[in-house]
Structure formats: structure tokens, C-alpha cells
Design brief:
Elements lengths: L2 H10 L2 H5 L24 E6 L2 E7 L6 E10 L2 H8 L5 H4 L3 E11 L2 E8 L8 E11 L5 E7 L10 E2 L1 E13 L2 E11 L6 H22 L20
């Protein structure tokens, strides 16, 4: 890998994890989700096949749902992150994604990122503008916390998605196998029937995870190593 190419990914690999956040955009939630609520609903399995599973649960004091996606992937940690940040390849695996770009790099662990999605009847096109913060734990797992990036307006003729909460956990099982868990609550805004939003969101998430699972093991990035990420064989 050339020094220029290496430096590019060194400065920008943090965007990788948040690219898949775009599959949140079809899920309409509101801030009525009460974190302090004593009422916690159990997770319900929506669909499971092999090493991929999608769960959902009711949001307290509303008719909405929270979604959790789980998948086991054949990949190193670095290979997974490199794959996600390969922006030219995003439309091949990310359901309904049109384009993505970095708006600002705050530091090595924080950036501002925009993802734009195609609209289709009866859903208008959306944009997600978010700030991500990433860190690696002592057990080598990687966590990413996502929140709205303030003061970045949406483009004309698009609806700006409201990210209420989003969290990624990527845990290595071995040198070439990882578990990924993604839990989120997002308000897609606009006037859409909740039953339609939830159904489309679940199907979109499933399709995206299946695409990643099929393509990731054969990605050219599996032979690449990120300088700031410690792999299982380095523990």
C-alpha cells in the first residue's frame, strides 16, 4: 500500500462504521422513547437464518419499535472497516443508498458524515448527517456511538433524518471472524404510516446484512491492516 493510500485510510477509516448506519433511514421513531422509563419490553425475533438475526421491541409509551441487528461475519476487524469505507462499493451492498461523503474530520476519533438515500413512493429522499465517535476496548471489541451533527442542514428537496440513538459493537471471535451488533432508534421524519415504515425498515436491514455477509469475505480489503486497530492475533 502506498504512503498516500495508507494515510488516506488512516485519517478516514472512522467513516467506515457509520456507512451502514444508512440502513436506519427508513425506520421512523420519535423522541418519546423514555430512557428513564421503568417499563422495558422484551426483544422479539423478526427473522433469523444461519448467522444473521433481526430483533425488534416496542418503545415505551408509543406504538413504535426499536431494532437490533446481529450478524456473524468472516472478516478481520481491519478488513471489515476497510470494506465499509470503500465508498465506490457502497451501492452494491447498502440498500437504497445513493452516495456518502465526509463533511468534516474533527480528530482521529470523531467526524461528521452525510449519507443520501433514494426516495421512492410514498417515501421522499432522505439525508442523514451524523457525528460518530469510535473507540477500541481492552478486549479488542470496537464501539461506535452516533448522534446528530448539529448546524448541518439537509439538501434541498430532502428530509433530514433525526438520529435518536445508535450504537455499534464489533467483537472478534477469531483472527478471521467477528460478531456485529447494531441497535438504533431513528426518526425518519415525514408523514408515513408506522406499519409501513417498520416493515420496510426490517426488510431493508435484512437485505443490507445479507449483502455484506456475501461480499465481505471476498473483499480485497481482507489482506489490509489498519494501524490503529489491534487484531485478535496481536492480543
Amino acid at each position: 500500500m502506498s504512503p498516500l493510500f495508507s494515510n488516506y485510510f488512516y485519517n478516514n477509516y472512522k467513516l467506515a462504521i457509520i456507512l451502514i448506519f444508512s440502513l436506519m433511514f427508513l425506520t421512523s421513531f420519535t423522541k418519546s422513547f423514555a430512557r428513564s422509563s421503568s417499563e422495558i419490553y422484551p426483544w422479539t425475533l423478526w427473522k433469523k437464518e444461519s448467522s444473521t438475526a433481526i430483533y425488534y421491541r416496542k418503545v415505551p409509551d408509543s406504538d413504535l419499535i426499536e431494532i437490533e441487528a446481529k450478524v456473524r461475519l468472516t472478516s478481520s476487524l481491519s478488513g471489515f472497516l476497510f470494506f465499509l469505507q470503500d465508498t465506490d462499493n457502497i451501492p452494491n451492498w447498502l440498500d437504497n443508498a445513493k452516495k456518502s461523503k465526509i463533511l468534516d474530520i474533527i480528530d482521529a476519533n470523531n467526524l461528521i458524515f452525510k449519507t443520501k438515500f433514494y426516495g421512492f413512493w410514498p417515501i421522499k429522499s432522505r439525508e442523514m448527517i451524523i457525528k460518530s465517535r469510535q473507540w477500541q476496548n481492552d478486549d479488542l471489541s470496537i464501539e461506535i456511538l452516533i448522534e446528530n451533527a448539529l448546524n448541518y442542514p439537509a439538501s434541498d428537496n430532502t428530509i433530514l433524518v433525526d438520529v435518536i440513538s445508535a450504537h455499534w459493537l464489533i467483537t472478534p471471535n477469531s483472527e478471521k471472524e467477528i460478531n456485529v451488533t447494531y441497535t438504533f432508534i431513528v426518526d425518519a421524519k415525514g408523514s408515513l404510516p408506522m406499519w409501513l415504515v417498520n416493515r420496510v425498515a426490517l426488510k431493508s436491514i435484512w437485505k443490507t446484512l445479507v449483502n455484506i455477509k456475501d461480499q465481505l469475505p471476498h473483499s480485497r480489503w481482507q489482506s489490509s491492516k489498519l494501524e490503529l486497530i489491534k487484531e485478535m492475533n496481536e492480543k
